[in-house]
């Protein structure tokens, strides 16, 4: 987006950033790759649904107690 400003008979073009600086991280290559991977996981059905937050937190606790590489 470009802002046009008429100043003393001159037309001055000032570029405007379309993405707020606080949100720029989202558009980094790393974040976009992670978003793409998440979309692929969703499309392939690689996700878990929970009936309530207690079940969700119990699942997180179980994952936190597992050893790396443990599939149990």
Brief synopsis:
The chain is α+β, with helices and mostly antiparallel strands. 39% of the residues lie in helices and 17% in strands. β1 and β2 form a beta hairpin.
Structural topology:
Layout: E1 2-7, E2 10-15, H1 29-43, H2 53-65
Antiparallel strand pairs: 1-2
Explain the overall architecture.
By secondary structure, the chain is of the alpha+beta class. It has helices at residues 29-43, 53-65; strands at residues 2-7, 10-15. It has a two-stranded antiparallel ribbon. It is elongated.
Number of helical stretches of at least 4 residues: 2
Instruction: Give the oligomeric state.
Output: single chain
Shape: elongated
Largest beta-sheet characterization: 2 strands, antiparallel
Question: Uncertain regions: pLDDT < 50 for 5+ in a row?
Answer: none
| Rg from Cα | 23 Å
Listing every helix as H and every strand as E from the N terminus to the C terminus, the arrangement reads EEHH
Distance between the termini: 52 Å
Strand tally: 2
Helical proportion? 25-40%
Q: Based on helices, strands and strand pairing, what is the structural class?
A: alpha+beta
Average pLDDT works out at 88
For the largest beta sheet, what order do the strands appear in spatially? 1-2
The fraction of residues in strands falls at 15-25%
């Amino acid at each position: 987006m470009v802002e046009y400003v008429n100043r003393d008979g001159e037309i001055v073009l000032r570029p405007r950033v379309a993405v707020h600086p606080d949100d720029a991280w989202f558009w980094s290559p790393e974040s976009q790759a992670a978003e793409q991977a998440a979309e692929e996981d969703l499309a392939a059905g690689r996700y878990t649904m929970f009936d309530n937050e207690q079940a969700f937190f119990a699942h997180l606790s179980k994952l936190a107690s597992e050893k790396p590489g443990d599939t149990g």
